[in-house]
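Quick question about two entries, pasted in order.
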Amino acid sequence: MTPFTKQVIEVIQSIPEGKVMTYGGVARAAGSPRAARQVVRILHSMSRKYKLPWHRVVNAKGMIALTEDEAGTMQRLYLEDEGILFDIKGVINLEQFQYQPVEIQD
């Protein structure tokens, strides 16, 4: 496992219930701000193995990125169960619900 992959897993595991992060936010927190697509791949391939709260990661607009109806519906239900609100267009207010991990100082 690469150091970046390990960091992504740790960042996603740290997202508390009732909060979300964007793919780009996860990439930034893991040390590679331009690697949002890699975060998607890691989520896709490792969510089950590492029991990642995959449903807490959304796109930069605050929307569910999954296009498969069942998976997107599941994600929305999980988030709503955690108290996250969607507006009429299906957008999460990132100012209210986005998690900002504390940066570790060396």
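Here is the second entry:
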Amino acid sequence: MTFLPTPRDPSGLPGRTLLTLPPEIDLCNADALLAHVLSLSEARAGRLRVLVLDLTDTGFLDSQGARLIHEVRRLLPPDTQVRVVAHPEELPGRVLELTGVRRDVPVYDDLTEALTA
């Protein structure tokens, strides 16, 4: 069973959507998560300016998780920013660093900063 996150719209921050991603992202669920994020983007067409992907509760992220984030950035409309929240010393943050995703997608270690930057 794939956990599909429920989007949250932080109050007072129009155009921003937060998705808290599941505890594990790998080959088993990365494609379903990508389809979910793209569907969310289509449903909010013209209103979604910033999408924040929160990985602070994600304990396992492999190369498929890094690919997921790269593909979200690549496939969303160019006027939609993608930001990630991941602690640099934890596994997801290290995977994003090693795979080079951090070069293309802003990664924050603080959720509030990612939402308001």
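Reply: The longest helix spans residues 30-43. The chain has five helices and six strands. Hope that helps.
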